[in-house]
Every structure is written in C-alpha cells, then in structure tokens.
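Collaborator request, handled under Task 6.
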Amino acid sequence: MGMSLKTQFLSRTTPPHVVTLVLLAGLSALTMNIFLPSLPGMADWFEVPYALMQLSVALYLGLSAALQIVIGPISDRYGRRKVVLGALILFLLATVGTLVSPNAETFLAFRMLQAVVAAGMVLSRAIVRDMVADAEAASMIGYVTMGMSIVPMIGPAIGGFLDGLFGWHANFTLLLLVGLAVTALVWADLGETSAPKDTRFAEQIRQYPALLASRRFWGYCMAAAFSSGCFFAYLGGAPYVGTEVFKLSSQEIGLLFALTAIGYLIGNFLAGRFSVRVGMNRMVLWGTLTTTVGLSVLALFTVAGLSGPVVFFALTVPMGIGNGLCLPNANAGILSVRPDLAGTASGLGGAIMIGGGAGLAALAGHLLGPGSSELPLIMLMLASSVGSVIAILMVIARARKLGLSGS
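Structure tokens returned to the collaborator:
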C-alpha cells in the first residue's frame, strides 16, 4: 500500500477509475432506499401488513451487517475482482426475483439476497487502500463517500416519481438496469488490486476479544449505532407516516426524504472542515446533541398538536446534520482504539452499527399500525439519539481518566 498504482480506464489489467468505485458504492446505497416511498403501496399490493413489508428494510440491513464482517476476508482469499463480480451477478438474479415474486414472503427472500450488493460499498474502500498510499486513500475514499451521500438524496425522489407513474415494479426494474450497467463497467474496468492469499478470517475472529474488552471501542460503537439508528428507524417508519398519517403521495414522500440527506451532506462538510481543530470526541458530542435537540423540538411540536408534513420532515434536517458530524468521527474513533487491529475494528464496528440499525428499523415498523400517529416513531428516534449522547459522554470520561487526547 506504500505506492500508487497507475490506472487506465476500461482496462482489466489496471486498478479501476474512481468513477467506477463511486458507481459501485452508489448502487448499494440506491438499492437500500429507492423503493422506500413505495412501501405502503407494496403492502397493499401483496395484501400484507405494513410491518411485514417494512422488513424489506430491516432484513436487508441485517444481512448487510453480516457482510461487513465476512466480505473483507473472503476478498483477501479470492481477490477483489472475483468477489465484486460474483456479488453483482447474485444481485442481478435477486433483483429479477423481486420483480417476479408472487407473494410477500418470496419477495422478502429475494430482497435479502439483494444485500450482497453491499460488497460493492465495503470493497470499494478496500480497493482504494490497495491502490494508493494512506495520505491519498483518505482523499479518494472521500470522493467515494461523497457519491454515496448524493445517491440517498435522489434515490427516494426517483423512486417516488417512478412509483407514481408505473407502480413499485418500476423501482426494481431501474435497479436491474443500473445493476447491469455497473456490472458491465466493473467487468471492463476493475483490474485485480489484491492478489489472492490464504484467508485470514480465523485470525480476524481470534482478534475480536481484544476489541470487545475495550470500553472505548464499545463507546464509539454505541455512539455510532444509536446515532445512525435514528436514521434507520426513520427509513423504516417515515414512508408509513407520510402515506398514512399525512396522506402524501409517493412522489411527495420521495422529495421530502431528500431533506435529511441534504442535512447529512452539510454535516459531512462541517466535519471535514472542523474535526481536526475541534477534536474527534467533541465533534461526535456536537453531532449527537444536534440530533437530540432537533428531535426534542419535533417531539414537543407533535405533542402540542403543531406537527404536520412540513414540520416532521424539516425537523429531520438536524438529524442529518448531526449524523454527518458524528459518524465520520465515531468511525475514526473505532479505528483509533487499537490501530494494529484497524481492519478488524472497521468490520466489527460496521456490523454493530448496521445490525443495530436493522433492529431499530424493524421496531419502527412494529410501532406503526392502523390508526397510529407519527409520535411513536419520533420517540423511538429521540430515545436512540439520547443513547448516542450518553455513549460519547462515557467515551469522553474514559479518555480523560486514561489521559488521552481528542476529547
């Protein structure tokens, strides 16, 4: 990793162009959220409760969490190119399955299989680390992450537009077409960046106790999990709130979803600008407090009977800003606990964060039923955010006790 590898676009003998990696990671983000405005309509289509249909979010996140742990060692053993292409082919087959599913249970099975596309998100970062030295890797990963933050802005808006014109099948048809295009691009442009070697999965598992025994590691993980958990709960419940509580169309819900993503982009910008100056732990604290204050105001407005679609969706912008401030720094904190185990910490921390998000997304679906208001969802999001504040305060207290900097 000490030298940069020369790239030639559309050559299978050189590392991929950054555009290929952005699109590869973006496909994973698009798969997660493009169909969210369609969820209530899909529940009607399959004649099942919303809570069952909403499992398409939670189960997808759960499998993505599991992939965070295993996909790195698998690609170490067989090479990045083979694993990415294999995952994309499975994704295409799963997407065809979602389109022809005769019932909700079959759809959910194929939806779970779609989670293999998360390999693109995980391995795009690994490929960057293969290609360039550490100093350049941070900048290049920034471009990949920026692409992933743009997709959530436009994904639900596109999904809502397609749903309104053609129904929910159009979203998965678009995923199939985009998936075919990305697969063709990866086949033509992604040269192998990591020579296959003996698997290190067993060694990675043996390193877990060293991390799990660290209170700071758990503190950063919980701060990240509870902070992002607000957003995952929102993903699970907001489509129902928009459709059933506020009587919005799928197109309107798709457009309003972009507000939170804009907030996240603002938070990312602020994190990049001020994290070095302010300090990692304080940036996490500021992020979690921003989210908590915004959700507290939303809860007060709702209890006072002053809520509505504009208030509800606009007050998720602070949640986006807070996540944008918190998550980059919390993830850096996860890696800082044991720098010699950074790869293991990244996989394990990601699994805990996304796995927790899957649980909260599922819980959001169960809290919302016929006749319910938006308040149960808001209180779940607020409770998760308060948990993130408590977690980072524990990290700061521990760091001060150990005499560590960064708080």
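The cover message to the collaborator said: "Residues 134-166 form the longest helix (33 residues). The chain has a mean pLDDT of 83. Please let us know whether this matches your experimental observations."
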